Amino acid sequence: MNLEKLQAFVLSSSDYGESDRIVSLFTLEHGRLKGFARGARNSRKRFGPALETFARIDLQLNHKDGLSSLRSADVITLYSGIRGALDAIAHALYACELVDCLTPEGQSLPRLYRLLAAYLERLDSNHVDDADRRLFEINLLNILGYRPSLEGCSRCGSDFGEGGALMQEGGELVCRFCARTGKRISPSALRGLASCLATSRFGVIAFDPEALQSAGALLDESLASHSARKLKSLEFLQQACG
């Protein structure tokens, strides 16, 4: 096996045995993969604090299917600004768990890597708000091919217009001619989410309170439908941020 040098975010880690750790990584080069860090809990020289969740690191590993072998890791940034604020920690953990849960193993996703980097940098600069969270979510869904149709009915293709859309199970959006019931998603929410897709810059898209609530309901439903498990970080986020 060849030793590779990669850039990565630590999505999660867990102790294994008396001194080892198993780490979920989101790498620029190979997407999501799992690594085995032998002696990581005892070796400050090879790993130090580099395996902390949502750290950005340079690492060396022997890459293989299943479980790669981590040889060493160096910190690029630990995002100390995030770690000093509970609400920022909650948002960062949630973003990392979304990536961990929704991305396929071993598939490079450079756009998503850059999106996660930009979001963590935003949180690190002490900017924490729901509009940024929703921008991250809709762009993540778009990159993975999961986003709901914002432009028109998913069944007949007609424009939603000023009547908005009706949300069905799984986040499907349909018009009032194709469904009689469903949660209404407002036109302003649809426009706001479409604007989020047109930029990867955080802090530039604003939602009014009603539109933000409506957009959030759609994204929560869409993400839940594609998640294989209940996200532990979501409960923590709701508790930390109200």
What sort of overall outline do the alpha carbons produce when their principal axes are compared? elongated
SSE run: EEEEEHHHHEEEHHH
How many H/I helical runs? 7
How much strand? 15-25%
* CATH fold label of the largest domain: de novo design (two linked rop proteins)
CATH homologous superfamily annotation of the largest domain: Recombination protein O, C-terminal domain
Terminal residue distance: 48 Å
Q: Please write the CATH class name of the largest domain.
A: Mainly Alpha
Please, what is the average pLDDT?
A: 94
Strand numbers in spatial order across the main sheet? 1-2-3-5-4
| Number of domain modules | 2
Biggest sheet details: 5 strands, mixed, barrel
Give me the count of strands. Answer: 8
The proportion of residues forming helix, as a percent range, comes to: 25-40%
CATH architecture of the largest domain: Up-down Bundle
Structural class: alpha+beta
Low-confidence stretches: none
Summarize the structure.
By secondary structure, the protein is α+β, with helices and mostly antiparallel strands. The chain has two domains: about 80 residues, Nucleic acid-binding proteins (OB fold (Dihydrolipoamide Acetyltransferase, E2P)), CATH 2.40.50; about 160 residues, de novo design (two linked rop proteins) (Up-down Bundle). It has seven helices and eight strands, in the order βββββααααβββααα.
